[in-house]
Amino acid sequence: MKPLSELNFDLHNHTSASDGLLSADELVHLACRNGCDALSITDHDTVANIAAAQKSAAAVGLRFISGVEISVSWMAAGDIDRPLTTIHIVGLNIDVNNKILLAGLQSVRSGRIRRGQEIAKQLVDAGQPDIFDDAYAFAENKEMLGRTHFARALVARGIVPDIGAAFKRFLTQGNPGYIPHRWASLADAVSWIRAAGGVAVIAHPARYKLSSTEFDALFDEFKVLGGQGVEVVTGSHAPNEYAAAGARCKAFGLLASRGADFHGQLETPVEPGKMALLSEVDRDLVPVWQLFR
C-alpha cells in the first residue's frame, strides 16, 4: 500500500456551477483519465454540482470528497490602515445538506450580482459597452457571476489575449473593474465548514499579498478558529512556491492539501491529478486526507 503522501488526491476544482468551464460529469471523467485516487469539487460559495459529481464518480469508481470554496474578507487584528484582503477557505468532506452551511453560502452569494453591476460600470467607463450582458452570458449559474466571467468576456472581445491578461489589465486592485467586496469573515467561514462536519483549509496561500507578520496572524487566527489544513501543491502556486508553503504548513502544525484549482484546460496551468505529489515536496508533510478514511 502506498504512503498517504504518495496518493493522487486532488481536492480543489471548479465546475460550471461557479466559474469553471466543465460540467461535474466532464470534470470527474477528466480526473479519472488522469489517474486521480480521489477528487473534490470546490465551487465558489455553492454546492450546486456536488450531487451530480457524486453520481458520476460512483459510476466510474472514483472516490469523491464533497467540498466548497468560501470567499473571506480578512484583516489582521489592529491593522486598520490596510484594506481587507480576500482569502479563500476550502471546506472538505462537508455535509452539503447542512442548514448552517447552506445559509452561510447563500449570504455570500447574495452580493455577487450587485458587485457585477459595479464592475461593469467601471469597464463601460473604460471603453467596454454592454460588458455586463456579455459576462452574464458566460455565467451558467447566474447567481455566481464573478470576475472570471468578465475576464472571459474581455478575451472573447479580443481586448486581451487570455484570462491572466484580463485580470492584470482590468480586474485587479488599481485597475478598471476592481471592486472591493465584503465577503464572509474568517470566523464565519470556518464555523460553517465545521458545522457541516468538514475540514477547513487555507487555499493557495502564495497568492495573497501579505507580509510575513500578516501571514503569521492569519494562520494563528485560522488555527484558533478550528482550521486544520493549508494547500501546499496547487495549480495556483508555481512549483518553486511549494516548499515555502510546505514549511509554513509544518511550522503551524497544519495538514497539507493538494488541488489543481482547475477551471478549464486553457485557463489553468495543470489538470486535476497532474501536479507534484506531496511526498515529492516534503516527505514529512501530513496529508489532510488522513482524516477522510
Please explain how this structure is put together:
The chain is 38% helix and 14% strand. The protein has helices at residues 24-33, 50-60, 99-109, 112-125, 131-138, 147-156, 163-171, 186-195, 212-225, 242-251, 278-281, and strands at residues 9-10, 38-41, 63-74, 85-92, 199-202, 229-234, 255-259. The chain has a 7-stranded mixed beta sheet. Helix 5 packs across helix 6 and helix 6 crosses helix 7. The chain starts with 8 loop residues before the first strand and ends in a 12-residue tail after the last helix. The mean pLDDT is 95.
Question: What are its keywords?
Answer:
293 residues; alpha/beta; seven-stranded mixed beta sheet; 7 strands
Lay out the secondary structure.
Layout: E1 9-10, H1 24-33, E2 38-41, H2 50-60, E3 63-74, E4 85-92, H3 99-109, H4 112-125, H5 131-138, H6 147-156, H7 163-171, H8 186-195, E5 199-202, H9 212-225, E6 229-234, H10 242-251, E7 255-259, H11 278-281
Parallel strand pairs: 1-2, 2-3, 5-6, 6-7
Antiparallel strand pairs: 3-4, 4-5
Helix pairs in contact: 1-2, 3-8, 5-6, 6-7
Helix residue percentage: 25-40%
Largest sheet, described in full? Answer: 7 strands, mixed
Distance between the termini: 14 Å
Q: What would you call the shape?
A: globular
User: Mean pLDDT across all residues, rounded?
Assistant: 95
- Stretches where pLDDT is under 50 for at least 5 consecutive residues are none
- With strands numbered from the N-terminus, the spatial order across the biggest sheet is 1-2-3-4-5-6-7
